[in-house]
Write a structure and sequence with these properties.
The chain has 266 residues and is α+β, with helices and mostly antiparallel strands. It folds into three domains: 58 residues, no CATH class; 101 residues, Band 7 domain (Tetrahydropterin Synthase, Chain A, 2-Layer Sandwich), CATH 3.30.479; 45 residues. The protein contains nine helices and eight strands. Strands 3-2-5 form a three-stranded antiparallel sheet. Strands 6-7-8 form a three-stranded antiparallel sheet. The protein has a two-stranded antiparallel ribbon with strand order 1-4. A hairpin with a 5-residue loop joins β6 and β7. The protein is rod-shaped and about 165 Å long. It starts with a helix and ends with a helix. 12% of the residues are buried.
């Protein structure tokens, strides 16, 4: 009798670990009885019958799946290499096990094909300028297709878009041309503004007596600060008008005669 009790205790000790399963808080267990789906095991300890029952654990935390780089052709026939990150989580553990053979592999393959189709429906400019919009479209399509598998796609982020070297040079030339265009437009606008200001300044000088003389003296003063400069003095037209109707040669002789008289007196 004692031997029977000892054997029973040994069997219980050996079998008990196989009967008790632990499901963590971030997991769910899918229980099968004789190969048929029984129920979903919640977090905690659960008893199962060895041989007759079996279970599979499913992680329900958010999974970040790196979608490998894919060669795709845009709508305007430009070849690009693009990769992305897919964020999803399982909301129904039973569907993830029963409806698809390998939900992790199936979700990754679906993300790759959907990403190529999305890139093929837009042009290169749209792909580069509207990445968030395209990411939302890819996320929506994948979420609808994986819903029967018990999977919720939370987000899709396009990581990198690689262009051929030839296309990169073309884009650089376009950007350079745009900058040159903006520079020419800005310079032309400055010339228009400067011409308006010059016309206004000329009008003010014309209306104000002596303004041109003051401006001339100011310009000469600025130039004379450097001794290496040679100054060519331009006589304003107003000064020449002062000699209108005057015999210049007689004026010069009179000036010389007055200087000689002053010298003789000395």
């Amino acid at each position: 009798m004692i031997y029977i009790i000892i054997i029973a205790i040994i069997l219980i000790i050996c079998i008990l670990p196989a009967c008790v399963v632990q499901i963590n808080e971030y997991e769910r267990g899918v229980l099968f009885t004789r190969g048929k789906f029984k129920k979903v095991l919640n977090p905690g300890w659960s008893l199962i019958i060895p041989i007759i029952q079996s279970y599979k654990k499913v992680d329900i935390r958010t999974t970040a799946d790196d979608v490998p780089a894919q060669d795709a052709i845009t709508k305007d026939n430009v070849t690009v290499k693009i990769n992305a990150v897919l964020y999803y989580k399982i909301f129904d553990a039973s569907k993830a096990i029963l409806e698809v053979q390998n939900y992790y592999y199936a979700t990754g393959q679906l993300a790759q094909t959907t990403m190529r189709n999305a890139v093929g429906s837009v042009t290169l400019d749209e792909l580069l300028g509207e990445r968030e919009k395209i990411s939302e479209q890819i996320c929506k399509v994948i979420d609808e297709l994986t819903d029967p598998w018990g999977i919720k796609v939370e987000n899709v982020e396009l990581k990198d878009i690689s262009l051929p070297d030839e296309m990169q040079r073309v884009i650089a030339k376009v950007a350079e041309a745009e900058r040159e265009k903006a520079a020419v437009i800005t310079k032309a606008a400055g010339e228009v503004e400067a011409s308006k200001n010059l016309a206004l300044a000329a009008e003010n000088m014309y209306k104000t007596p002596g303004a041109l003389h003051l401006r001339t003296l100011s310009t000469i003063n600025d130039v004379s600060s450097d001794q290496s400069n040679t100054i060519i003095f331009a006589i304003p037209i107003e000064v020449l008008r002062a000699f209108e109707g005057t015999d210049v040669s007689s004026l010069v002789k009179a000036v010389k005669k007055s200087k000689e008289e002053e010298h003789n007196e000395k």
